[in-house]
Design a protein that fits this description.
The protein has 2 domains: 117 residues, NAD(P)-binding Rossmann-like Domain (Rossmann fold, 3-Layer(aba) Sandwich), CATH 3.40.50; 179 residues, Rossmann fold (3-Layer(aba) Sandwich), CATH 3.40.50.720. The longest helix is centred in the last third of the chain and has 21 residues. The chain is an alpha/beta fold. Strands 8-7-6-9-10-11-12 form a 7-stranded parallel beta sheet. It has a 5-stranded parallel beta sheet with strand order 2-1-3-4-5. The chain is elongated and about 65 Å long. The structure holds D-malate. The site of D-malate has 8 residues, from loops. This is D-3-phosphoglycerate dehydrogenase. Its EC number is 1.1.1.95. It catalyses: (R)-2-hydroxyglutarate + NAD(+) = 2-oxoglutarate + NADH + H(+); (2R)-3-phosphoglycerate + NAD(+) = 3-phosphooxypyruvate + NADH + H(+).
Length: 308
């Protein structure tokens, strides 16, 4: 019998598949950390997680049973991959299931920021009819810079085109021909697009190359009044630089779904004028969660039962 541990909330459709899989038994154990997590992992053949649990080198010390961890989602940054490799644990993810939901959330943030949806709603909650205060800006005709033209970046770009935006894209892996076919003007560096964009959205993992991709020197180059969106990973924009950019008026707005430290319930950015924030909701739709759960269970059971 292959034993599977589910370490974060997983959609019921995924749990049903685990229950139906012959030769597999599973347990859901949420909120584990430290020694409790290490001991639990040592008793299972496979694990499924989202981003709530942190698999550190210590979590895998002495491992002799666990063979695979599947992240129900895209980013595997909560799993220490070198330590997993050393412990003989394969790390997998479900790269496709979240794409549309995350892209829609990036667009939602961009529109909410442009039309002051969050503060205007708050004004009504507090009994004010602030029609004059919340003059917005239209996105049609504006230029959106998209950094990273993978699945999510492309889904954002095609949706933004439907909103009649012009798209500048940066992605070292995309050819000029493919970009032109998609109606995207490809640039050679992120710096190159900064003076020309009204909006910027990033769709890359957080790596040594993308950490602080937008920092004070980039804000010097950016078009005055630009608005920035991040529904990818905290840290791609330097949070202190965002605060300074907003204070100086160089940035007209910032919309964030992700933060350097998560969960994040206290940030100087919260409540600043022009800022709209959500608590890492990019993949939080029923559709995305069902899809990533089903994909994760399929990957893990195939691996454990069929070795693929
Ligand atoms: C992902 O990496 O899949 C998304 O950020 C959503 C999540 O963390 O659940």
């Amino acid at each position: 019998m292959q034993r599977v541990i589910v370490l974060d909330n997983l959609a019921q459709e995924g749990l049903d598949l685990l229950a139906a899989a012959e030769g597999v038994e599973y347990e859901v154990r949420i909120g584990l950390k430290g020694d409790e997590l290490r001991e639990a992992l040592s008793q299972f053949d496979g694990a499924i997680c989202r981003s709530g649990v942190k698999i550190t080198p210590e979590s895998l010390v002495g491992n002799s049973r666990l063979k695979a961890i599947v992240r129900a989602g895209v980013g595997t940054d909560n799993i220490d991959k070198p330590a997993s490799t050393r412990a003989g644990v394969v790390v997998m993810n479900t790269p496709a299931g979240n794409t549309l939901s995350t892209a829609e959330h990036a667009i939602a943030l961009m529109l909410a920021m442009s039309r002051n949806v969050a503060p205007a709603n708050q004004g009504l909650v507090e009994g004010r009819w602030d029609r004059k205060k919340y003059m917005g800006t239209q996105v049609a005709g504006k230029t959106l810079g998209v950094v990273g033209l993978g699945r999510i970046g492309l889904a954002v770009a095609t949706r933004a085109k439907a909103l009649e935006m012009n798209i500048l894209g940066y992605d070292p892996f995309m050819s000029q021909e493919r970009a032109a076919d998609l109606g995207i003007e490809l640039v050679a560096t992120v710096d190159e697009m900064l003076p020309d964009i009204d909006y910027l959205t990033v769709h890359t993992p957080l790596t040594d190359e993308t950490r602080n991709l937008i920092d004070l020197p980039q804000l010097e180059r950016i078009k005055p009044g630009a608005r920035l969106v991040n529904a990818a990973r905290g840290g791609i924009y330097n949070e202190q630089a965002l605060i300074e950019g907003l204070k100086s008026g160089k940035l007209a707005g910032v919309a964030l779904d992700v933060y350097v430290d998560e969960p994040c319930t206290d940030s100087p950015l919260f409540g600043m004028e022009g800022v709209v924030c959500t608590p890492h909701l990019g993949a939080s739709t029923e559709e995305a969660q069902t899809q990533v759960a089903v994909e994760a269970v399929g990957l893990l059971t195939d691996f454990l039962l069929n070795g693929q």
